[in-house]
Amino acid sequence: MKAIYWISTLLLSAILLWSAIAYLINKEMIEGVKALGFPDFFRVQLAILKIIAVLLLLIPQVPLQAKEWAYARTGLFFITAIVAHIAHKDGWGITFLNLVFIMVLITSNVYLHKLLATR
């Protein structure tokens, strides 16, 4: 149970960190966010919020309520990405990928609660 929690949480954190860094330095990603119709400040804001979410999820001493907010915000990131890519008429691959990310998020959250219930 602990292994599933940590694997899913580390995978989720890697996804968030990769996208946050890409939002800040990858020219294709920066242009892609603009092409979706989002203002430039939104890209930077998302990157910062994703980094904060990673810290909240990975640091064991963070209170459960803060972790829950991080999970909720992260789910909102993925849902927003799905809506934006569908509205932009992008391929279904990116939507499927975001659905996989949501499943990783749910797995991490469910196993966090299972671990806490066994304490």
Largest sheet: none
Terminus-to-terminus distance: 13 Å
Low-confidence stretches: none
Strand composition percent:
under 5%
Choose one word for the global shape. Answer: globular
Q: What Rg, in angstroms, do the CA atoms define?
A: 15 Å
Give the averaged pLDDT, no decimals.
Answer: 96
User: Order of helices and strands, N to C?
Assistant: HHHHH
Which structural class is indicated by helix and strand composition?
mainly alpha
Number of strands: 0
Helix content: over 70%
Q: Quaternary arrangement of the chains shown?
A: single chain
| Separate helix tally | 5
Describe this structure in words.
Helix 1 runs antiparallel to helix 3. This protein is mainly α. The radius of gyration is 15 Å and the shape is globular. It contains five helices and no strands. It has one domain. The protein is 86% helix and 0% strand.
Brief write-up:
One of its GO terms (cellular component) is membrane. This protein has 5 helices and no strands.
What is the topological layout?
Layout: H1 2-25, H2 27-35, H3 40-58, H4 64-87, H5 92-117
Provide the descriptors you would attach to this structure in a database record.
single chain; about 120 residues; mainly alpha; 5 helices; about 85% helix
